[in-house]
Amino acid sequence: MKECRNCKVEILDNTAVCPLCSSVLEISGPVQEWDAYPDVKAVVRKLSFIVRLYSFLAIVSETALVAVNYLYFHGIWWSAITGICILYFYLTLKYSLQKNKGYQAVIVVQVVGAVLLVIAADYIIGYRGWSVNYVLPGAILLLDGTIGTLMIVNASNWQSYLLMQILTVVASIACILLWYFGILTKPFLAFTALAGSLCMFLGTLIFGDRKAKAELKRRFHV
């Protein structure tokens, strides 16, 4: 253990000088090394290695799948679907884990990525519209349920989920516009998603009162 004679304190860090007065420390007992702070660099290195390893395996696997799909082609480029799935999991590792983003941003990015993946798969196998008619509004309803659960669990900070609610309202309106232009042909789930999103948002504004208004002012500077 090291000790500073000037400050009369014992120092546990692996250092030769006192952090208070910069005097040279003296050894007052058996030398012990303590991990005063978590080794963040080690965690970052491990995550970077995992991402690189996944990238290597993904490239090799997708190359093999494309080759098999080409050699035994029967009208569907299913290897494109596997490629999109591999890319989705890569973005999950890169964005959600390695970048240490907030969990709200991670939830939104994951849901948006999953919806885009399903829409792409729908187009690849021969567009039937099920991705837009059912998966897109279903994802919005899933987000609504997730937001409601998070607001209950984190009741002391419920107003922080207002921005996510606004995003679900905007996405629901986008679904209605898709129906208006004939892209979405089964509007029941789309209107259900819009009703659910609007009810949650308006309920939060009405019952949240000052906290909700303060959060909107903080977010949009109005």
What do you see in this structure?
With 222 residues, the protein is mainly alpha-helical. The chain has 3 domains: 1-37, no CATH class; 39-98; 114-222, no CATH class. Helices cover 68% and strands 4% of the residues. A 3-stranded antiparallel sheet has the order 2-1-3, with no helix packed on it. β1 and β2 (9-11) form a beta hairpin. The model has no long low-confidence stretch (mean pLDDT 83).
- List how many beta strands DSSP finds: 3
Outline: flat
The helix content, as a percent range, equals 55-70%
Mean pLDDT score: 83
Number of helices: 7
The description of the largest β-sheet is: 3 strands, antiparallel
Estimated share of beta-strand residues: under 5%
Helix/strand/pairing class, anyone?
A: mainly alpha
Distance between the termini: 56 Å
Unreliable residue stretches: none
Number of individual domains: 3
How are strands sequenced across the largest beta sheet? 2-1-3
Name the helix and strand elements from N-terminus to C-terminus, one letter apiece: EEEHHHHHHH
Using only CA atoms, what is the Rg?
Answer: 27 Å
